[in-house]
Design goal:
Length: about 550
């Protein structure tokens, strides 16, 4: 036999031997395992929701996060022995179940025992709920819920499943694209008895990113408690708002709108909330429009000084009644209430005393067009840029707006506009923005609630405009605001603060209301402004009555 035939025969023999070894392994060694695997089938493919990113306060404290619970569903013809055993397990694990229907929530221990014992005909479904801070800041944080048909038209293009939960309002809606993760897909395998024999992810869910807000959780709690305390003591008040800003960058430190609601009970309470005449669903901080009253005198002061109509040393005599025009001839509040006058006053003294005659004359000298320009430069009558939906722009009083509502503007209308009346209507957020802009030297910074997104750098301050205010003129305005807290109407309330502060109060009469709206704006510390605060209470009476409320908020911040 030739060498070639011998080699060929050896080659074929080797192949047959290898084939035999493989066949032996398949049939004898691993036969049972492969047989078992052959009995398996893909039972179903499940969508696994991705964890939504957390909302954190500026110090890393949790404001909202996902909470996962599980539901156990039983097949229609589940074995009676399985049902009996399941009822016993539920009793042992102290899980309530009547013996019919689904079990929810299922504890992790109960789930583990069901799987360990191999009870068939039972499947588990995860349910993700959003656990928030209740009524701490519902208008700012917002809530999560099922998509509406209109929202589905938008979100389906981003790859959202129809049953996805999305941010409905507040920060949850504003930062939806950051907070929302990418769902995954899980494949479950069962044997022919229906028992789950394996599971794997074909697509791993990707969690959303954490979002850090500018909000200070402790300050928010203090602000809410302080404002609620005022409302409790003044039952005639129908609602109020308080908002604090970081002077250095425009970040919202606290935002309270009362009455409010608990986000956890929103769906159950919606009908009641929506019919409530005190409108708890409205975010008064960004949607409530209020006459600023005497708080607007700060704008008139800045305009009169910077335009050279007055100097810090200029004195104007309070005559009790302003008689420059034949009509109108409005009075100073002191003359109207007590028949007295403030006498000769400088601008700082007029701010401290809130002398109407001084600001009637200052407003007349400035003129309505210039007054309006300064109001907008300080952030009034324009949106602040905050990320929350529904912000109102407000109204700066003037001929154009009066004509737009069918009214007539008279030359003397500038007098009431100069002290914050006429058609001036602003949000509490704009009043805080005005205060922060003024005490920062005229730099108007965009208001925001985003501090940082996970994986990115911190928020960069955005400057919207710059109003030039000389140091001397700013010092004169601040001196008047400082006098309000040192020796004026807020002296008693601000006495125990660890640092000096500046403030201006206001009272704005509302047609048909028994009492005026109370307004207060303030800042602290006096020498190095860090926080600007605005408070408005509907039918709260005098702005001076808000002194204790403002002091409590500032004290928490300064501590």
């Amino acid at each position: 036999m030739s060498a070639r035939l011998i080699s060929a025969a050896g080659f074929f023999l080797a192949i047959l031997t290898a084939f035999g070894v493989v066949l032996w392994n398949l049939q004898v060694v691993s036969g049972a395992a492969y047989y078992e695997r052959s009995q398996r089938s893909i039972a179903r493919v499940e969508t696994v929701p991705a964890a939504r990113g957390k909302l954190l306060d500026r110090n890393g404290k949790i404001l909202a996060q996902d909470a996962v619970t599980w539901r156990a569903d039983l097949e229609e013809h589940c074995d009676e022995a399985v049902l009996r055993r399941l009822k016993i397990l539920c009793q042992e694990e102290e899980v309530t179940w009547t013996g019919e229907g689904s079990i929810e929530p299922v504890t992790s221990r109960l789930m583990a025992r069901i799987r360990e014992e191999g009870l068939t005909g039972i499947s588990f479904t995860p349910r993700v709920t959003r656990s928030g801070s209740g009524d701490l800041a519902p208008h700012l944080l917002g809530r999560v819920g099922a998509m509406s048909p209109e929202e589905w038209e938008v979100y389906q293009e981003a790859g959202y499943p129809m049953d996805a939960q999305v941010g409905k309002d507040g920060a949850e809606a504003a930062f939806e694209s950051l907070l929302h993760g990418t769902p995954g897909t899980k494949v479950l395998e069962t044997d022919r008895n229906g028992q789950v024999t394996g599971e794997s992810y074909s697509v791993t869910p990707q969690p959303g990113r954490d979002v850090t807000l500018t909000l200070d959780k402790d300050l928010q709690a203090a602000a809410r408690a302080a404002l609620q305390s005022f409302l409790d003591r003044h039952p005639q008040a129908t609602g109020g708002a308080a908002v604090a800003l970081d002077v250095s960058d425009g970040g919202v430190l606290a935002m309270v709108s009362l009455p409010d609601y608990d986000t956890a009970a929103f769906s159950a309470d919606y009908e009641t909330l929506s019919r409530d005449p005190d409108t708890p669903l409205m975010n008064r901080v960004v949607q409530g429009l209020y006459a600023p009253g005497s708080a607007f005198k700060l704008v008139t002061a800045a305009a009169a000084l910077e335009e050279g109509c007055l100097t810090p040393e200029t004195q104007i005599l309070d005559t009790g009644r302003y008689t420059y025009y034949k009509s109108p001839q409005p009075q100073c509040w002191l003359y109207r209430q007590e028949g007295r006058t403030h006498g000769l006053e400088t601008l700082s003294e007029a701010i401290a005393d809130s002398c109407n005659i001084f600001f009637y004359d200052a407003g007349r000298r400035v003129g309505i067009e210039t007054l309006d320009r300064y109001a907008r430069a300080l952030g009034l009558g324009v949106k602040t840029g905050i990320e929350l939906a529904g912000e109102k722009a407000g109204v700066v009083a003037g001929p154009d707006y009066t004509a737009s509502v069918g009214g007539t503007w008279y030359e003397g209308s500038v007098l009431s506009a100069a002290i914050g009346q006429e058609n001036n209507r602003f949000t509490p957020l704009q009043l805080a923005h005005m205060t922060a802009t003024l005490v920062s030297g005229g730099e108007r910074r965009q208001v925001h609630i985003l501090k940082k997104t996970e994986g990115e750098g911190p928020y960069e301050t955005v400057t919207l405009g710059k109003l030039e205010i000389s140091p001397q003129n700013l010092a004169a305005i601040k001196a008047g605001m400082g006098a309000v807290t040192r020796s004026g109407s807020l002296a008693a309330a601000f006495r125990d603060l660890p640092v000096e502060a500046g403030a201006k109060t206001g009272s704005a009469q509302v047609a048909g209301a028994e009492l005026a709206n109370a307004v207060l704006v303030c800042f602290a510390p006096y020498d190095d402004p860090q926080i600007a605060l605005a408070i408005v209470v509907e039918q709260g009476g005098s702005g001076s009555a808000l002194g204790e409320t403002a002091a409590a908020i500032l004290k928490e911040y300064l501590s």
